[in-house]
Specification:
This protein has about 120 residues and is an alpha+beta fold. The chain contains 4 helices and 3 strands. The N and C termini lie far apart (about 55 Å). InterPro entries: ZMYM2-like_C.
Length: about 120
């Protein structure tokens, strides 16, 4: 096993390929993401939460709540509003004693008024 590892066999980790902007535009234009029925709306929300807040596992999506400790809306005067997401726990940081000193993931998502594709109500 050591000999094979030194050669680099089996040492590559699988990584998910990121969506390009063109691929995301195609999904919105094909109505794969929209709000015209409940299933599509849920799919759209899951996609946007993963894209904007970096949510990975299904449990992270289910634990997401709009509460001040997790998601806060900031509206600075004279600037565009933004959302601040701070995780409670995730699949890799579950909040036990050995995770006390691990910093929680914090993501800031700024709105883009020029882009209509992220506006759920857009036609």
């Amino acid at each position: 096993m050591k000999h094979i590892s030194r050669k680099g066999i089996g040492s590559t980790t699988k990584k998910a390929a990121a969506f390009s902007d063109e691929e995301i535009d195609k999904l919105w234009q094909s109505k794969h993401y929209a709000d015209y029925n409940a299933k599509v709306l849920v799919r759209t929300i899951l996609f946007l939460n993963g894209l904007n807040f970096g949510l990975r596992g299904g449990q992270e999506h289910r634990n997401l709540r709009y509460r001040p400790s997790q998601i806060t809306l900031h509206e600075p005067q004279g600037q565009s509003a933004y959302l601040q997401y701070t995780e409670d726990y995730s699949k890799s940081v579950q909040g036990g004693l050995k995770h006390r000193r691990v910093t929680k993931k914090s993501v800031t998502h700024h709105g883009n008024p020029q882009t209509e594709r992220y506006d759920i109500g857009a036609t």
